[in-house]
Amino acid sequence: MNGSLALRTWAILWKDMLVELRTKQSFSAMVFFAALVLFLFGFAIGPDPATLSRLGGGLLWIAIAFTGMLSLGRTFQSEEVAGGLDGLRMYPGEIRAIYLGKLLANFVLLILLEIVLVPVAAVLLQLEPWGRFPLFVGITLLGTFGFSVIGTFYASLTQHLRARELMLPLLLFPALVPVFLGAVNATTLALAGDPLDRIGGWVRLLISFDVIFFVVCVWIYPLVLEE
Amino acid sequence: MTTTELPRFKRGRAPLLGLVTLIILVAGAMAGLLAVPADALQGEVQRLMYVHVPAAWLAMLAFFVVFVMSVLYLIQRDPRWDLIAVSSAEIGIVFTALTLVLGSLWGKPTWGVWWTWDPRLTTTAIMLMIYVGYLVVRSFAEDPEKRARWSAIIGIVGFVDVPIVYLSVLWWRTLHQPPSSPRSMAGEFVYVLLLNVAAFTFLYAYLMVRRYRLAVAERQLEELRLSREDRGGR
Amino acid sequence: MSRIPGGEPAVRLEGIAKRLGWTWALRELDLEIERGSSVVLVGPNGAGKTTLLRLLATLLKPSAGAGEVMGIPLQRGADDIRGRVGLLSARGYLYGDLTAVENLQFAAWMGGTRTDGRSVRSALSRVGLDHVADRRAREFSSGMQKRLAFAALLTRPLELVLLDEPYASLDTDGIRMVDEFVGEWKRDGRTVLLATHRRGQAVSGADRVAVLQSGRLRRFCLPSELEPGDLDPEEPEPGRPESHAEAARG
Q1: What does the CA dihedral A177, A178, A182, A183 come to, rounded to 10 degrees?
Q2: Could you give the number of structural domains in chain C?
Q3: Smallest CA–CA separation between A93 and chain B, in Å?
Q4: Is the pTM of this model over 0.80?
Q5: In this predicted complex, what is the ipTM?
């Protein structure tokens, strides 16, 4: 049974990635949107390099959160086009495979976005992530995973609501406050240096959030899709 | 045909509960305004504490009830739990907003600003947004069963989130400056505060009874509309 | 109704009701279907045919009543039931950006089969799509998409096959293909429940006919015992694009 859960999770991830690959335009659009957000921040804040790099961690995560929100909404809409989520629900075994597959698909997609976005942000905002790069990568992975855990969950929950484009951010952003604080502060410390060694606390917060909400969301997800 | 067994209310003891609540509220207000002296440092404005803290307590209590009722609903699927949850959520939101306004009024003379990123104040604001989301989702879901199920899920996830939000904001603030910690209070202040907390707890009970009956009536109206639209039914 | 000795019926429903939003799509439905038989489900749009099929596929939870599919209770055994039941929906559930082969590969994996490409290709050739195996489903005509959706069923071992409007948008060859599959499934001892507007051959070839009306089972009988009023007088042409009213129901 567990083998089949893994197989079906993989199948959904494979299918979603393949669709993304076939429709490269939407991924490019995501990247350009994220870069555009960074440009707007630059205009809003001004060209002073010191200010930009001090705020860099926060700006990077706002760009990721906004872009990620748009891509979350699309995850379940692609199923709508294929005829609805029944197309996934009708298969045997645990319904949780749908959540796990979609979660991984969102996670991988955001990581791909970040691989492009981080160098762009480094140039635009004068960031230096290369000094403590493994730490920076670890924080980014943890933050992105937390975002995907809650984001996929609420995207699925709001899928059948009227005004879902409005409801998703309304539910998602308040719930994300701990991830956002953890990711922004840890990233800023990783970029600027961490003389008081406070980064460990934020990383532990991110790990706790990721674990707690992963367990809660996986556990109650079947109730989301019931009909 | 109905899957809903909703209670039918007789003339209840709600007016009596209301009267008791009113008496304790008046007693609490008088105690807070007259019986205790003003704070040595902050002066008269500190008396806001006797409303601010009970309002915050009531909001927390209300959201805890939302959480418990959400869990119960998902286990038993009894629409009554859902109606209690939404009643409690609405009351909680009103008193969360009140807590924020009072905190802001208290903050202006004390800190010199209407808003400060104090961990408790910030968490209260985030909590307000979480539960406003809870209510808005309900207004966008037409099917009563889905509405109840989805909002129950948000009631659970949101409640789990609140303490983590608090910890993260607390941490964030302590990096910049220590949070405003409550000073130890003298005995008489504590008693007056406890009296007001008790008064607000009664107020919660009274409002819950009223709001729950209204929720049941709304639900029965919906059911009635269903059976009229569905005359081909049994 | 006679039962195969020792075998649970494929479907047993008692007092099933389903509420969708503010309407009752099914009311007090009792139904028992023998294993290995084929039953045709007829009734006007909105009678509850799709709802009944979705309920048997455990995509909907009954609001009231109890039921078993393959001897497994609907309320508790949904994950197991889905392993034995396949649904061909009017909506197809195909991904336009994937090729025919990829769509089938996905269906096979989701069904829990670690399949290689060969069985997928053989399913494709059985529905007559091997010549377009590597074309994207988006480019297919609606008849070809229906065939592809059929092939997805063939990648999985099933005991109960639920077909919702299988004839819709198929040409004469396609219709014959559906009838052949139904016959083949029956010979293999599988149970077939088929909802259709098409009266002719499907109804007369079935073991039983179930007539649904306003969410109730109006009649469950041999095809020869049908009364004129049981069938909708208006008979749509085979191959006509089907109305979306049925598909759009919850």
Answers
A1: -50
A2: 1
A3: 21
A4: yes
A5: 0.89
